[in-house]
Structure formats: structure tokens, C-alpha cells
Amino acid sequence: MLHLSDDIHNGSAAWQKAGVTLPTYDIEAMRQATKHSPTWVHFGAGNLFRAVHAPIAQNLLESGATDRGILVAESFDPAIVDQAYTPFDDRYLQVILRADGSMKTSLAASVAGAYPLGEDPKPLHDLRLVFRNPSLQMVTTTITEKGYALVDSQGQPLPWIAPEFEGGSDKAKSAIAVITALLLERFKAGALPLALVSTDNFSRNGERFGQAVRQMADEWIGRGLAEKGFGDYLRDKNKITFPLTMIDRITPNPDKEVGRRLKALGIADAEPFRTRGGTAMAPYANTEETWYWVVEDDFPAGRPPLEKAGVYMADKDTVNAADQMKVTTCLNPLHTALAVFGMLLGYPTMSKTIADPDLKALVTRLGYVEGLPVVEDPGIFSPKEFLRQVIEIRVPNPGLPDTPARICADTSQKIPVRYGITISKYIRAKDLDTADLEAIPLIIAAWLRLLIGSDGNGTDDAGRPVKLSPDPRLEELQRILVDIPLNGSAKKETLTTTIKSILADTSIFGTDLNATPLADKIETFLTAMCRGNGAVASTLHKAASAW
């Protein structure tokens, strides 16, 4: 059996027989060059990093465009490094799942070092030395949108952030605090330049990243824990930048079936697991063929030649247009729609949802009819073609084991962007009317229908309890919806009163929906979906048939 930590060059024939493409560059020489002159550090060692960033570094190494690898740090769940990197010599298998059911497998070895930022102080000490090195050019992140939050809705520091505000860099544990502490090291080393590049999946991510870092630094400066010049350094665009980005690759959790297929090829390291911190990991990362990364080209310390690995380097306006296209029209809203209905209708995977003709009709209308009229073409690729790939190729890919439950996580936080922006554009447009929207109110009604239940369980279309995905507004929303009957006795007038406060919540929808024709449509759809078992499917089918 083959192990990822094996001497791959002496055993290359066995790997080739297993269908695994091996690195052709000198791994040890790459590690030594990176140790001496690092250029790229990434925060967030999970599966998206393994699907996008590390393969880009691998591509650059393979082409000879660089001799340096990538360093990765993990603060949220340091066990990822201890359990998914260290035992495998920082290597993993990248498994691309093609739509025809085949797999393309390669051994990724571009990670030159991994830093578990937990109780052991040594990894952070070593990372401080990296940040003091003038060769460092860029820091990228995948810490999820919640990783940038420092205060609550009242402006008070979150419980785990408060000790960092008060204790300064010595108390840094969260990703933002650690990154700020490392930037303080770079400031002390001569105010060296650096680009900090959020690749988390939300709009204007670079701006949010910069705000969070500067807020952390200002708290320290205000308490005398850092000098004022540090704040000036973080605001000097000739020194520190926070480029905007759009990133896109569907990357489900590791699939057991992929592991079984790898084992059948003779690869021993092929068992998915949960880390001690609860993260789903494996010695491999399974993902789709298609990917996009668009980056604002603003790097004061220089950068690796990312464009040689397929990255779109662009100006800020182009990145914004590409991001808005993806997250408000051509991918994310479709994903959420399919996931919500997938949970209601009992579909186990995303590919099964879009195989339902009514759901395909729903997202076809959502994208082409309701979304494209308000999309700005980024100019680097066609929104219409992007949308076609999502509907016809990417989501239907049966090899991707993505689940509605994964996509449904934090839906209340996603709706403002995935639907709220389109609604706002319709309200502002002279030649568009929110009364013409049909798919969006149907999806919102379905989401509310899914939430009817209690204790974190919703109710599916067969009347069965369904475990709902984590959402910070879940308990609050379920309290409002809990008394809506699902046996057909719900009156629209009563239901309208019940959900009025939800539809008025601008933090969810971006506008008060009660002031638009959408409220009546949502109430009508929701009333129909509460008429007993099978009512969701019949309401969906009636709407889809009319389109």
C-alpha cells in the first residue's frame, strides 16, 4: 500500500500505476528555498485551501515560475495541522471529480510548512520570524466570514475577542488578532510592505479584512499596547494593502466513496475523519474541475506570478463586478435555493436537487430571468456562460458529494447578499419591477417553511423532523414561526401577521419587504406550502409549470 509520506521518487512506478500524478520539482529544495525566503503565507488550512491555493502554488512550482512553496497556518482548529498535515509530511491528494464520474488525482506537495497556532507557542514564534522576512509578499485567508467579526450588534467585543483587545498581541488567538500581531512584527522589522488578501466568500472581502485588522490594532494603540505609528503603517497604501477578490470552487467535505476508490487503487492514506476540533478532513481533498479566482492587482511587496496559474489579475471594479455576478446571481443564490428545497424534499446531494425538473426550472428562472437583468458584466468572462456552467455542468456533477445541509448553514446571513441585493436593484431600477419577481419570493417562503419546528429541527415536506443547519438567527426565527400549523388550517391573514416582523427585518433582506409586492407573494406561497404533506412539492410544481 502507498503512503503519502513515502519516498515518492523511489516508488514512482507504483504511484503512476495507481493513476496519481507526482510532483516533478525537488520538494526538499523547495522547502529550503521557502524557509530562507518565504513569499506566501495562508491562514486557514481546511479544504478550500487544499482545493485552490495549494494547487496554484503547485502549478507555479511545476511550471518553474517559482521555486517557493506556500506556508499555511491554522488558528481556529489547530488539530487540522496535527492530524491532516504532520502525519502525511504536509502532503495530500488532490482529487478532481469529473462530471463523467472519473477522478483525476495528483499528489500535492506545495505546502512548505504548516503552523498549528494553539497552546504550543513555538509555531507562532516561528511565524513571527517569517513576517519579519523582507521576502514575504502576500498573505491569503480562508477563515470564513465569521472570522472577521470582532464586536456584536451593540458594538461590544465578542467574548473571545475581548481578552485580545485588552491584552494585545501577547493574547492573540483568533485569526484576526494573530494576523494583526504578525503585522506588528513586520512593522517593528522596518515597516515592510505586504498585501493581505482575503479569499473568503463574501462581497468586498478585502475592505472587511482591512477594517477588522485596523480595528484590532486601534484597540491596542488606544491601550498603549502598540505605538501610534503602527496604525499609520496599516493605513499607508504604499505599505499595506487589502485587495478585493472573488473565489469560486465547489469544495465539499471529503467523501467516503472517494476514499474507498483511492484504497482500491492501493493508497493506504485514504480515510476521512473529524479532527479533535470537529473539522471534516482527510488525506485528500475532493473538488470539481471548474474554478475561478479574480484578484485586485495591488501588491506593494510584489507577488508570485499568479496569472501563470490561471488567476485573473484585475482592477478593483472588475473584481467587484465578478464577485457581484457570482454571489448575487450566477452561483450562490442558486445554491441556496436548491439547498433549502433539497432539505424540504429530502434530497441527499446537491446534484440530486437539480435533477428535479421543477428545481431546475426554479434556478433557471432565478438566474436567467430575474438575475441577469441586474448583473454587471465583469468583462473577463461571460455571466451567461458562467450561469450555464453552474446549471448544466457544475451542480449536476454526480461526483460531487455536496449536501443541502452544508449549503444551508447560516442562511439568514447569506440572504442579504444572495437575494437582498437583487431586490434592491429592482427597487432602484426605472425599468424593472419587484412585482415581476417570482422565484425569489418562492425561495424565501420555502426557507421560512423549512424553519417551522423547534429545538433546531425544522419540518420537511413529508411532515418529518429535519435537523437544521447552524444559523445564528435560528432560535429567534423558530420562536416566531413555531405556531404556524402545517395541516392546511393556516389562514393567510394570520400567517401575514406572524411573519410581518421577519419580512420587515432589513438585516436579513436588505429592505422592508412589507413595503414591496414581495410580501404578499411570500405569504401566498408560504400559506400554500403549509397545506399538509406534499404541499411544498405541489406549490413548487405549480409555480414551475407557469414559467
UniProtKB/TrEMBL annotation:
Residues 41-308 form the Mannitol dehydrogenase N-terminal domain. Transmembrane segments: none annotated. Pfam families: Mannitol_dh, Mannitol_dh_C. Gene3D superfamilies: N-(1-d-carboxylethyl)-l-norvaline Dehydrogenase, domain 2, NAD(P)-binding Rossmann-like Domain. Residues 323-528 form the Mannitol dehydrogenase C-terminal domain. InterPro entries: 6-PGluconate_DH-like_C_sf, 6PGD_dom2, Mannitol_DH, Mannitol_DH/Oxidoreductase, Mannitol_DH_C, Mannitol_DH_N, NAD(P)-bd_dom_sf. Keywords: Oxidoreductase. It catalyses: D-mannitol 1-phosphate + NAD(+) = beta-D-fructose 6-phosphate + NADH + H(+). The keyword Oxidoreductase applies. This is Mannitol dehydrogenase family protein. It comes from Bifidobacterium polysaccharolyticum. The lineage of its organism: Bacteria, Bacillati, Actinomycetota, Actinomycetes, Bifidobacteriales.
